[in-house]
TrEMBL record:
Zinc found in the keyword field: yes
Portion of the parent chain present: 1 to 485 of 892
Organism of derivation: Falsarthrobacter nasiphocae
Gene Ontology terms for molecular function: alanine-tRNA ligase activity; aminoacyl-tRNA deacylase activity; ATP binding; tRNA binding; zinc ion binding
EC number(s) on file: 6.1.1.7
Protein name: Alanine--tRNA ligase
GO cellular component: cytosol
Gene: alaS
Length: 485
């Protein structure tokens, strides 16, 4: 079943259950505290909180999502994309658990000829929040699901909250598919996340989050005005199961770019099962290319352009990582133009703006490649020298060296980190950051001194600086502490 057919069935099913079909919002959310739309619920937050009255009590959508938090998983797990589509159904003070759970069951297990997804009920597993007896009852009594395939877990796994105090929160119940013993150990979702693939999260959104950190260490401030439902199913994850492929990257909307990466590099994808075989690393690279190119196309399509901060920096990093992966596959000539074209062909049917706006998308992607290839050309030899020297001394690459690469060659720190790591050398990142900070302090003092007619006021500048936080790059750019368990 093609991805487009999955989304059509989803929307038809929930429409038949009285839900209003709401088009996907942009990847770039209106909320400045959220860098990207990371889940189907993001556009509906004001309705959950009761800040705005929802124009419908039941809604369904296929929402475009970007999760930068998952970038490092891409290509290595079977199930994580940076860009993916989340199918959702939502209730704003209308139905609650008693309907949300049976809806999910019906859609997943109804036969294909009846409009369902025809999953084998014996392969499904369920998790619930440890104290949520209500959900346990609905699963076992209303649905008839076997109690021995329900696992209870704590806040980290079965509780969702929007990262900041004041956001909606609630316990959830997740549905997993057992791919079979060849994928991992027995024991259900608690034991193995590669064999038991998480496909659908049903969140019972009924509380307001209070103070606290992260996913599992926060207080509950009180109840929301209404009890709501927020669910999210990974469209590509279901596609991977229904298409009988091994992972996210082999599904119909992603695979074409992977094949193009294989063709361009002359490497065979999936050529070996032996983990020691270096071609396995090549498989990861091809998967990274397929995801990052698609994600970049979708981001540019929603108006993001490469830059050194915020959303633009995420895009820059995605494109550069794809280019790096192609180089590690042995392709040094520019290929981004060809890769984005293939992705456009795969995505343009579902997202017509990608096809219509493609010349602009390609132009932006190719310009980024050009500038990155220039950077690589100038800095790689120097980096390699430093790495070899550090290795022979048995030391890590110094902060000063990383700083010089940045300052003289425009070599970004993440590239230094990645390339050094590949060579088995660590980098004194704190040393690098301290030097960056010093440089900024100096620059500020200089410009202040100029204004004040050459008086040395650097001491004041460093005082002012002391209160500022340092830029920590992509890892802390988003409010993705909100991502569910
Ligand atoms: P996982 O534990 O596998 O990382 P999650 O618990 O972070 O998933 P949720 O926040 O519960 O995911 O999101 C709801 C659904 O969206 C998931 O059940 C999954 O099907 C899908 N999903 C989440 N993250 C991704 C991703 N990076 N790529 C593809 N699908 C995803
Ligand atoms: Mg989840
Ligand atoms: Mg999870
Ligand atoms: Mg996750």
């Amino acid at each position: 079943m093609k991805t487009e057919e999955i989304t059509k069935r989803w929307l038809d099913f929930f429409e038949s259950k009285g839900h209003t079909v709401v088009p996907s919002a942009s990847l770039v959310s209106n909320d400045p505290s959220i860098m990207f739309t990371i889940a189907g619920m993001v556009p509906f937050i004001p309705y959950f909180l009761g800040e705005q009255k929802a124009p419908y009590r039941r809604a369904t959508s296929i929402q475009k999502c970007i999760r930068t938090l998952d970038i490092d998983e891409v290509g290595k797990t079977a199930r994580h994309g940076t860009f993916f589509q989340m199918a959702g159904n939502f209730s704003f003070g209308d139905y609650f658990k008693e309907k949300a759970i049976p809806f999910a069951w019906e859609l997943l297990t109804s036969p294909l000829e009846k409009g369902g997804f025809g999953l084998d009920p014996d392969r499904l597993w369920v998790t619930i929040f440890e104290t949520d007896d209500e959900s346990f009852e609905i699963w076992t009594k209303t649905v008839g699901f076997p109690a021995e395939r329900i696992q209870r877990m704590g806040m980290k796994d079965n509780y969702w909250s929007a990262g900041q105090p004041g956001g909606p929160a609630g316990p959830d119940s997740e549905i997993f598919y057992d791919r079979g013993p060849e994928y991992g150990a027995d024991g259900g979702p608690a034991a193995d996340d590669n064999r038991y693939i998480e496909i659908w999260n049903l969140v019972f959104m009924q509380y307001e989050r209070g103070e606290g950190i992260g996913k599992d260490d926060f207080e509950i401030r009180g109840e929301l005005p209404t009890k709501n439902i927020d669910t999210g199913l990974g469209v590509e994850r279901l596609a991977m199961l229904l298409q009988g492929v091994e992972n996210f990257y082999e599904t119909d909307q992603v695979r074409a770019v992977l094949d193009k990466a294989a063709e361009l590099s002359g490497k065979e994808y999936g050529g070996t099962e032996d983990p020691a075989d270096p071609r396995n690393a090549d498989d990861v690279r091809m998967r990274v290319v397929s995801d990052h190119i698609r994600s970049s196309v979708m981001l540019i399509g929603d108006g993001v352009t490469p830059s050194n901060e915020g959303r633009g920096y995420v895009l820059r990093r995605l494109l550069r990582r794809a280019i790096r992966a192609m180089r590690l596959l042995g392709v040094e000539r520019p290929v981004v133009g060809e890769l984005v074209e293939v992705s456009k062909d795969a995505m343009g049917g579902t997202y017509p703006n990608i096809a219509e706006d493609f010349e602009r998308i390609r132009r932006i992607a190719v310009a980024e490649e050009k500038s990155f290839l220039r950077t690589i050309a100038s800095g790689t030899a120097r980096l390699e020298e430093s790495v070899v020297a550090a290795k022979s001394r048995g030391e890590s690459l110094s902060g000063a060296e990383a700083f010089a690469l940045h300052d003289t060659y425009g070599f970004p720190i993440d590239l230094t980190l990645e390339m050094a790591e590949e060579a088995g050398v660590s980098v004194d990142e704190n040393g690098f950051r301290a030097l960056m900070q010093e440089q900024r302090t100096r620059a500020k003092a200089d410009s202040l001194a100029k204004k004040l007619g050459g008086v040395d006021v650097s001491a004041y500048a460093s005082l002012r600086e002391a209160g500022e936080t340092f830029f920590t790059g992509y890892t802390e750019l988003t409010s993705e502490s909100s991502v569910r368990g």
